Amino acid sequence: MSTHRWITTPITADLLRGALDLEHTEQGVLPHRLPARARAQNADGQLAMAESQPSGVRLVFRTRATALELDTLPTKRVYVGAPPRPEGVYDLLVDGSLVGRAGVAGGTTLTIDLAAGTTTEQPGPVGTLRFSGLADADKDVEIWLPHNETTRLVALRSDAPVEPAPDHGRRVWLHHGSSISHGSDAESPSTTWPALAAALGGVELTNLGLGGSALLDPFTARALRDAPADLISLKIGINLVNTDLMRLRAFGPAVHGFLDTIREGHPDAPLLVVSSILCPIHEDTPGPSAPDFAAFSAGRLRFLATGDPAERASGKLTLGVVREELARIVAERAACDPNLHYLDGRELYGEADNAELPLPDELHPDAATHRRIGERFAARAFAPEGPFADPTARPAP
C-alpha cells in the first residue's frame, strides 16, 4: 500500500500544453487538438478520432514531488485481422530529460473492421499511471500523453504541491501534417519526429498532425490561423494523394486559400511549406491507397496504391505532381511574402533512406526513421540560416 500523502490537483488548461481546447466530460477532461468550432464542421470519423488523440499534448508543471499518479481513461484501437497494436505510452520528462516511460491498463476498446467499414466500442475501466523515486527538489515536470490513444484525464495526484510551470520564453511552433506528423509508428509521444525536432530547436510544440486528415480543410486553416504561434509549418501531400481527394485543378486554389487564411492571423510569422517525404507507392501512382488484405491475413499491416499512373493526364495527384505544384506556389507567393519558405520532404527522407530504412507498411516510418526525420528537420529549419532561426541567438565565436 502506498505511504504517500496525496494532493489532488484539478486538471486545468494552465497545466496543459499542445491542446487547443478542453472538453469536460463525465469521464474526465478530454484534450482536443481542434477547437469546438472546427469539430462542429467536421463529419468525418477518421478526423474526429485523430484530433482527439493527444499527439504533442502534455501536462507541464513545477513541483518538488517525488511521486506522481495520473488516472486516465484511454481508448485503445484493435484492427480486425491485423497484428495487435502496441499499448499507448506516457513519457515523463524532468527538466527536459526523459526519466520514465509507462502505460495505462484498462480503458475503452475500439474495434475497427477495415474490410466491413465498421467500428464497435467496448467500455472499460479507468487506469492509473504511476511514477516514483523522483528527486526531492523543485523541477519542471512534463507528462506526454500517448500520441495515438484518445485519453481522458481523470485525476492528477502528487506528494507535494503542483503549480503551473514558468514561461521560459521559448517560441511556439505550430505544425500541421498527416499521420507521419501525428506520430504513426513512433516509439513514444516525445519521440515523434515533430517532438524530437522541437526539443532540438528549443521551442514549444503544438502538433496538429492529424492522421489521414491533412486535407486542406478550411476549418483546419482557421484553427491554425487562430492558434498562438511564432513559427508555422505545413506538411502537405500524402493524404491528398492517398485519399484521392481532389484533382490538380482544385489543388492549387486550395493551397492558396489555406495559406491566405493562415496569413490572416499570422501575417509575418515564418511559414514553412513541406512536401511529402518519399513514399514509393505514390511517387508516380495516384491514390487511393487501400489495405492489402492478403498481407492482413498473414498478420502484416501493409498498404497498396490502387490508382493508375496514366490517370495523371486527367489531373489525378501523385506526390511528384504535388511537390512540383507546391514549389511553384511558394516561389510565386514568396515574391511578396519573404517569410514564406519551401522544403522538399525528400530532404528529410529520400531514396537512400528508403533503401536503408524502408517504410514498414509502405506509408509510415518506424521509430528510427522518426528520429532521422526529426533531426534533419531541426538541422534545416532551426539552423542559423534556416527559416526558423532564432533571431536572438548569438553567432558562435
Write the layout of secondary structure elements.
Blueprint: E1 7-9, E2 16-17, E3 21-25, E4 28-32, H1 36-40, H2 45-52, E5 58-63, E6 68-79, E7 90-94, E8 97-102, E9 108-113, E10 118-122, E11 127-131, E12 139-144, E13 151-158, E14 162-164, E15 172-177, H3 179-182, H4 193-201, E16 204-209, H5 218-226, E17 231-236, H6 238-242, H7 248-265, E18 271-275, E19 289-291, H8 293-297, E20 303-305, H9 319-334, E21 340-343, H10 351-356, H11 367-381
Parallel strand pairs: 6-9, 15-16, 15-17, 17-18, 18-21
Antiparallel strand pairs: 1-13, 2-5, 3-4, 5-12, 5-14, 6-11, 6-13, 7-8, 7-12, 9-10, 19-20
Number of helices: 11
- Provide the gyration radius in Å: 21 Å
Average of pLDDT: 94
Give the overall shape, derived from the CA principal axes.
globular
Number of E-state strands? 21
Structural class: alpha+beta
Overview of the structural elements:
The protein is built from 11 helices and 21 strands. It is globular. The protein is of the alpha+beta class and 397 residues long. The chain has helices at residues 36-40, 45-52, 179-182, 193-201, 218-226, 238-242, 248-265, 293-297, 319-334, 351-356, 367-381, and strands at 7-9, 16-17, 21-25, 28-32, 58-63, 68-79, 90-94, 97-102, 108-113, 118-122, 127-131, 139-144, 151-158, 162-164, 172-177, 204-209, 231-236, 271-275, 289-291, 303-305, 340-343. Strands 1, 6, 9, 10, 11 and 13 form a 6-stranded mixed sheet that branches. 43% of the residues are buried. The mean pLDDT is 94. The longest helix is centred in the middle third of the chain and has 18 residues, at 248-265. α7 (248-265) packs across α9 (319-334). β3 and β4 form a beta hairpin.
